[in-house]
Amino acid sequence: MDTSTGDNAGGGSGRPRVKQDADFIFHELTRSICPECRTVIDAQIILRENKVYMRKRCPAHGWFEGIISSDAEMYVNSARFNKPGTIPLEFSTEVKDGCPLDCGLCPEHKQHICLALIEVNTACNLNCPVCFANAGIGYSLTLEQVEGMLDRFVELEGDPEVVQFSGGEPTIHPDLPAMIQAAKDRGIRQVMVNTNGVRLARDDRFLETLAQLEPVIYFQFDGLRRETYRTIRGEDLLDTKLLALNRLHQAGLDAVLVAAIERGVNEDEVGAIVEFGLQHPAVRGVVLQPVTHVGRHLPFDPMQRVTIPDVIHGIVEQTNGRFVLEDFVPVPCCFPTCQVNSYIYTDGETVMPLPRLLKIEDYLDYITNRALPKAPDAAQVQQALEGLWSASAVAGTEKTAGQFQCACGPGMELPYSVSHLKEHIFQIAIKDFLDAYTFNVKQVMKCCVGILVPDGRVIPFCAYNSVGYREQIREQLALEQGRRQNEPVGRSGG
Ligand code: SF4
Ligand code: SF4
Ligand code: SF4
């Protein structure tokens, strides 16, 4: 560590020693990991020129600094949108080595799981240069394994909200339809399929099967420029994406567009993605995610990465005055710096964001703890808003439409039927997953998005990606699969 103090160090120069102000505000101390060796280390959050940075030192690899928010005011103000967590019915591990090494969930975790992911395979029909899951050779879960994981999710949650099948590419798993059915059979209210859309564009029979099961399609869609796909996905997929979306509409399936946003590639397309989604009849929402620099990713500068405020400002600036900064509100069920949401009533042309119809912070500000507005239905409105501003809110569902209807209450000049709202409510979510430069135990301790693992654990998504769980579990599942396949015929399944 450099302990010199420059010009002020001398007594020999004859100049008076002058104390200087730091060029940053020390905001808080937290825990993170070393981007080189992943050792858990202390980390400082500092504010400089209205931006927020994480600064930390690994004893073996020295100092690291990376941006975590390009708008300090937005970051600091989000603290009041921090809802008390709900404790899950059971935990799967013990507190032993401390967060984030005890996942999970361990009894120190501060929130239950709103949204569970099952990565059914590691294989994919694409080979994207940007792939947090680092898709490739690994494992493919059996239907029995997935059924066991769904049973565990029900045990942990009692009444689970949402499960999302992911991968790799889940649509190339031969048992995906049976897995979706298994989730529905267990009463899990909403099932999603996270896909690149390639098989949806090409396989009629598969699309028909999915249409009968009615999952919401979480549809990878990074922009409207061919070059964007060549850079992020390694090939021009635009026509395939547009074809798949049109086919989803014909099949009666709803989609949420999910875009990975990278600096210098497509941050200037966020407005176009929102506008496209508002116009397309299959699309009920968009999720904009700054690229998570884990797994495979393009070279990046941790001081220049895209953060949530960049995406919000991008939408405001690129949509011709349709949106303002205040239309985007932090999500209180996770840590409020993880995600912001907005909901819009739209007829395709005009848009009316919900935060302009009622003052959301009157209901979702948990720090000042002030009394709710005096309206007789205020408690129901708060409950509805908590449902909408949750990681488990799924665009295009009756539940979301009903919550929107309830939040608006009487007096709003909109048609009220849930079936009408279901077609006209549009969700915008912006999620900033953590990488080794931004990893913050404060956020993962209250994470509400978990990866289900066959051994019964649920591992918070950002811990799974950054701390080493993904690699350990992938290796373990691949080994188990290899052993199963090498068992003599007649002994397997015994
Ligand atoms: S992230 Fe949660 S489950 Fe994992 S170690 Fe930390 S507190 Fe425990
Ligand atoms: S990002 Fe998705 S589509 Fe691309 S290789 Fe990875 S799993 Fe496949
Ligand atoms: S997945 Fe990551 S970004 Fe999302 S709630 Fe969990 S910790 Fe926050």
Descriptive report:
The chain is α/β, with parallel strands linked by helices. Helices cover 30% and strands 20% of the residues. Strands 5, 6, 7, 8, 9, 10, 11, 12, 13, 14, 15 and 16 form a 12-stranded mixed β-sheet that branches. A 4-stranded antiparallel β-sheet has the order 1-2-3-4. α11 runs antiparallel to α12. The structure holds iron/sulfur cluster (3 copies). One iron/sulfur cluster binds next to loops.
Offer a concise description of the structure.
The protein has 494 residues and is an alpha/beta fold.
Number of domains: 2
Low-confidence stretches: 1-11
Assigned CATH class of the largest domain: Alpha Beta
Q: In the CATH hierarchy, what is the architecture of the largest domain at level 2? A: Alpha-Beta Barrel
What coarse outline follows from CA principal-axis ratios? globular
- Annotated CATH homologous superfamily of the largest domain: Aldolase class I
Oligomer: single chain
Percent of residues in helices? 25-40%
Can you summarize the main beta sheet?
Answer: 12 strands, mixed
Q: What is CATH's topology name of the largest domain? A: TIM Barrel
Termini Cα gap: 59 Å
**Overall pLDDT, averaged?**
91
Strand content: 15-25%
> How large, in whole angstroms, is the Cα Rg?
23 Å
Given helix and strand content, the structural type is: alpha/beta
Structure annotation, total helices: 16
Ligand identities: iron/sulfur cluster
